[in-house]
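Data deposition worksheet. Section B asks for the primary sequence of the deposited chain exactly as it was used as input, without tags or linkers unless they were present during the calculation. Section C holds the resulting structure in C-alpha cell form. Section D is free text for depositor observations; keep each observation to a single sentence. Incomplete worksheets are returned to the depositor.
Section A, Depositor: J.P.
Section B:
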Amino acid sequence: MAGAELSKEEMIRAEIITAAQKLFQHYGLAKTTMEDIAKAMGRGKSTLYYYYKSKDEIFEAVILKEGREVFDTVFEVIKKASSAEEKLRLFFDTTFNTVKAKMNLYTIMREDLIKSEYSSFAQPVAMRNSIKKFNEKEREGVKDILLTGIESGEFISDIKESVDLFAYVIITSFRGIMTDIAFNENEINATFFDDDKANALVNIFLRGLKK
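Section C:
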C-alpha cells in the first residue's frame, strides 16, 4: 500500500512539474501563478499546495529536473565515445548545446530571473543538497574521463595525483561560462561560440592534459 501511495505521489509531482514547465516557458516565472498551474493540471489549488508550499518550490523542482536531464543526456552520449579525448570533447559540446537549447525554451523566464531576486535567490537546504549531489556526480563523471585518459596514455600521468582538482576546475570553469551565457547572452557576441571557438575552448583544457 505504501509503495502504491508513493507511486501516486510521484506521478502527481511529475504532473505538477510538467505543467509548470510549460507555463514557465510560455509566460515566464513572474506571470505564472499557482492557480495557473492548478488549472493547467485540471486540479484544485489545494492539491498543488499539498505537494508544494509555493511557486518557488515548484520552480526549484523544475530547475533540478532540467539539471538531471542535462546530466543524463551528456553522459549517455559520452558512453558512445571510444577515447578519453573524444569523451571530453563530447562533454563540452553536448553540455553546451543541451543547456543552450533548454535556455532557449525559457527565454521569458530567463528575463524574469535577470530582473528579479531569483537571479541570486537563497537556495533552501533541500535544493542545495540536491544540487550538491548533482555536482558531485558531474565531477565524478569528468574524473572518470580523466582517469581513462591517463590509463590509455592519452593524458599525462602527472595529473593523477590532482585528478580531483582537475575535474573540479573543468566543471566549475565550464559552469561559469554556461551561467554567463544564460544571464548575459545579449552582451555576448553572437559568433563567440561558433563551432571553431567552442572547439578552441576544449583545446585549452586538453593542452594541459597532454604531453
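Section D:
The radius of gyration is 20 Å.
The chain has a mean pLDDT of 81.
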